[in-house]
Amino acid sequence: MFEFRQIPRSGVRYNIMLEWFLAARWAGLNWFDEFDQLDGEDMAFVVAAYRTNMQIEAVVQYFAHKRRK
Amino acid sequence: MSQLMEHVNGTRQQGRVVPPLPEHTFKDSGITIKIRKVGPTTQQRLAQAIMKELPEPTPPTVETELGAETNAADPAYLAAMEVWNTQTRNELTQRLLLIAALEAEVTIDDAARADIARKKRHLKLIGIPVEDNPDLTEAENEKVFYILHVAAGTPEDLGEFSQAVMRRSVPTEEAVQSQIATFQRDLPE
Residue B80: which domain range? Predict the structure, then answer.
């Protein structure tokens, strides 16, 4: 709970729990009634899917921006 | 119906079958207990409670040409932060272990009670008397001591117990990476 992740090059730090919360919201899961009740492995599946989706989105955006230039 | 009653994890009867509690066997002592998860919300609340009890040090303010500014590079502040980080992490670990032990299920029989008495006596002999927690019942104190001092016979056992509960409770980075590996291919160059 006192673990923080740093975004490379920006210096921005955030609590790891923020990513879990955003992943739950992205997956349409209620934090208290649904996500919190999942088994750790199932939570990891949701977080992994969210993180991968964010990375793919970033790459797609990057190339779209490059093409527009 | 009796089968239903056996598989409700002892908390709520909702008329549906839920899986039995997972077991955890301590490698060194060989004792097996049943564990329950400690969800992220509980852990977050614990962290908040600890932060209230142990407030984060604040950096000193220094006068500069631009006015009063905080100096986050102050050596005394950095040292205080290091101490605070260690204290809060230790406190969180201790409380998580306590709640994990309280939530776990284990049968305390006469043999277990004999083990508890033996361990308490040995600890007292080497100058570490163990006080019961006044906020817990006698049965709870017995269970917590048995799990954290008898079943977890070594620091490695204690660490593995903590990890087993964490794996069930939160998305550990190891588990997230393992899931990512199953469905992500290399990003384009």
Answer: 21-183
